[in-house]
Amino acid sequence: MTLVETPSGPDVAALRRPARVRLAWLLAVTAALVVVMLASVAFGSRVVGWDDIVAALGGADTTLDQAAVVKRLPRTVLAVLVGAALGLSGVVMQGVTRNPLADPGILGINMGAMLAVALALVTVGLSTATEYIWVAIAGAAVAAVFVYAVGSLGRGGATPLKIALAGAATSAALASLVTAVVLPRGDITDNFRSWQVGGVGGAGWDSIAQIAPFLGAGLVICLLCARPLNSLALGDELAAGLGERVALARGVAALGAVVLCGAATAVAGPIAFVGLIVAHTCRLLIGLDHRWLLPFSGLVGATLLTAADVLGRVVNRPDEIEAGIITALVGAPFFISIVRRQKVREL
Q1: What fold is seen in the domain 73-342?
Q2: What is the pTM assigned to this prediction?
Q3: In this structure, is the dihedral angle defined by the CA atoms of residues 72, 78, 81 and 85, taken in order, positive or negative?
């Protein structure tokens, strides 16, 4: 049986946080999300004042500033939804694999979704957002199964280091395949490259309506897996001894994470490191109980991606830097620090 390492120092305090402290953090993150959402509709190529924001939220669009707010609203909502989906899927993937390095981008799941979309564009020609989502989810699922299978080969089974290495190798291989598939097709290269970077700049209410049912389904599945994930954290043998059907619990939780990741990638492109940053931040703040961790990770993920989108618009005004680039710049050193500190041990 694989045992969870006994934490020390600040980690113990995090595990023993009382409910009132967790609730306080929950309220603080909710307030931060509201602030960054307001910043998202206020900042861009034009800075919009409070009066115009209030008027635009009430339905007015008679001035340029009010029209700018109306245009930014779907972008803000999409950033919240995609960020929540990626944050939640990162926590679930780490719980399923017991791997502190698990993240949709690091494990190649985003890249699997991208390759599936690229192949479908070239071979059959996708025409609707729903088709993009189904294809992306299928590609994400295939990549997830492949990485876990490769990481399980050899002695010791699916160790965190082997899964991380398998994910990195798979991501590199799939990225090369994506380039090989798309490059000869000049008619789709420009649009695909803008999507490939990862961002929410092309948001619209129609794309949000298309993605919402998939995100809702993935959210429900993941939240229902909170108790099984707590059992899995004790080790497979102990979880089975407590009456948990380990394989079923792991498969259902992974399905929810793949649906969230695939749908988010279909509409916003492959945005990496959000799940990794969110998962470790949330555990530090509120502990390891997935009943708290899952909803909290959704809020933190939404806040992180929305803030990254706002930052990308502010630092390069009047142009912008896609949110996927911002999260990569923040997430890469975060990833290195986790590897150095935790030495790739299991959760």
Answers
A1: ABC transporter involved in vitamin B12 uptake, BtuC (1.10.3470)
A2: 0.88
A3: negative
